[in-house]
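Exercise 7.
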Amino acid sequence: MKKSKLLMIVGALLLLGLFFLPLWNITLEAPQYPDAIGMDIYIDRFEDANPNDIKNINIMNHYVGMEDIPETIPEFSIFPKVILGMVALGVVFGFIGSRKLYTTWFVIMIILGSIGMYDFYQWEYDYGHNLKETAAIKFTTPDGEPMAYQPPLIGSKMILNFKAISMPRIGAYMMFLGMGLSLAASFQHKKENGNDKAPKPDAAGRPAVV
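Solution. The predicted structure, written as tokens, is:
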């Protein structure tokens, strides 16, 4: 098997790691919590970063009127199907061995990843802004507006005395590596077939004049 095909197939198969490894993580650090609390986000579930972390986050959020972190969201039934579809598509493209198909797979992954990040941002926005009127504690901004508690999309942000940190995890890095391998497959394919467009000799066997 050509190296370009192998790179494409391996790149697609790396996405299967998303079923077992966390895609993202949100962590909260504060003086009252010697050990940071947080949650890992998979393509099909939320999990405690440490035992009872999500329960403790929900207890804190209750006082400022935030909704509990749900056990499931609609995306958890969609993402696994999308990932399986992209794995299957990538493997098929790998066996076909077309540079254009390698690039197409990479572009589709970019589009899907962008949609996923936007959806994640929207979930964070709703989670941090939709507060209950019956909240026991209500904080306001210097302008007098109700304070929002939206975590950052990526990076860190201070929310009251909490430092919220949102960062990709190993599942995301495996996905990025898989996408990188699809690009490498495209370049490798060009290298392997570099002479395909070389001028062919004429009927008499003489090299064609470029």
